[in-house]
Amino acid sequence: MSEQTHITVTDELLVRFLAGEAGPDEAMAVGLWLETPANAAAFEKLQQAWDTSGPGRPYTAPDVPAAWLQWRQARQAAKVRRIWPQWAAAALVLLAGSAWFLLRNDPAEIGKDFVVESGVTEKRHVLPDGSETILQPGAKVTYPAPEENGRFAELTGSATFHAKADPQHPFTVQAGPLTIRVVGTTFEVKQYTDSITVSVRDGAVMAIGQKDSLLLKAGMRTNYLLQEARFTTQHSLLPGGRPSKTVFEFNDTPLGEAVQKLSDAYGIPVLLDNPALADCRINTSFTDKPLDYVLTVITESLRLEYRKANDTVYIYGNACE
Amino acid sequence: MDSNGNKYLATNFQSVFHTWYGKLHRYAHTLLKDPDEANDAVQAVFSRLWEKMEELKDQEDIGPYLYRSVHNHCLNHIRKEGNGKKYADWLARHEAGTTGDAGAKLAVAELSTRIGEALDALPPQCRLIFTLSREQGKKYAEIAETLSLSVKTVETQMSKALRILREKLADYIALGGAAYLYIDKLLS
Q1: pLDDT by residue (tens digit) across A77-99?
Q2: Global ipTM
Q3: Chain A to chain B Cβ contacts (< 8 Å)
Q4: How close is the nearest chain B Cα to the Cα of A169, in Å?
Q5: Which of residues 82-101 of A touch B (CB under 8 A)?
Q6: Are A75 and B47 in contact (CB < 8 Å)?
Q7: For the domain with range B86-187, which CATH number is right: 3.90.226.10, 1.10.287.110, 3.30.70.580, 1.10.10.10?
Q8: Which of A253, A309, A305, A312 is nearest to A278 (CA)?
């Protein structure tokens, strides 16, 4: 940070600011001072007195997310005119799979941001920097062309991200008004009509709302209320990380039903490799046990095995007699 | 900011936008006296930042750079377009009061009366300085020169004027800037 001369915010400075007489340094000092809610409340009265007493249209706070969309649209319109040939080659090298397919299919997309949609089933997609995303049905991810050197994606709907570690260049996901900044981690974003939940499997993310922000570590989950533009005060732990209170009572329960309960409770899909396994019966109970413990007990009692791959648990073995 | 200022910016552009947009807009509003024009100004500043990112020095702090850009952009805008129309409109509104429906006329009349009363409560010199700045858009330096005062005195008097106005207009303001916005809408 540069050594800025310290500017004291006085009444005189505030009035000079309102009168349009403040220089950039002074304006910045006022901006900083206004971050304190008590200061902002006092200033508002002054501003209203000022606005009421003379020409001009009174101050209204801008809608920043709308301003961002406006800015992006203007930039995209400008960019389409600018690029294409020189980076088609770069795109070829950097992009794999569906993005390349998309590029080939629709040359009009070139120069614009990339859009990947999941359709009716979930879809896995590799972003230009190597980060992976699994889009839930009906989700959409938009990210800039790789030449822009950006590690950010805009999300509509819900998805899980596995961000490639790169502490120097945090990966950023924009979900509605919420900004989620990541340093190599796996996390999940679910967007509802009234709220957005962010669940972190490993690593840590910074969730930035319109008014405040929150550091979430592995095993934590938060809920962001859209209407009130704030995080709920409770930041629950993910059942998968450290279950707070997870109780299972299985009495002659079909395995198919049991794995469904485990999936829901731990937030990780537990699948049966062989559909016939669904009819196996289990009798046991668990209280606050890690998923691995539960899986071990179940599979060993039924002489089955399990393995984990890509955040999914597969149970396999022969059908029960 | 890390040593790769430009890379940092490219990666975090959206976050930088969200962090600074509101603050810069507030500053632009004090210069342009219009929220929409202020929006246009800040949008233009961010577009320029995006294009000129490589020219930024690695160690340069983004905040002061953005504030300087807004300042320059707005002053250029005023030089080209002029702020005169806003001041002329204001005077016309307060003198004519012949357009608009009866409700609007009444509201304008009411507001004019209230502001008139509040201004009358100011000491003469204080009032003169305030009207030169607020109603005619004169700069502090111009006012100081016209009245053979120091800029410091102008500053002190302006602050005093606004403090008194805030008190005199308190109940009117408490009704809500909404009432004022309503009038503004009727007349635009």
Answers
A1: 766 544 444 444 344 334 333 33
A2: 0.85
A3: 189
A4: 7
A5: none
A6: yes
A7: 1.10.10.10
A8: A253
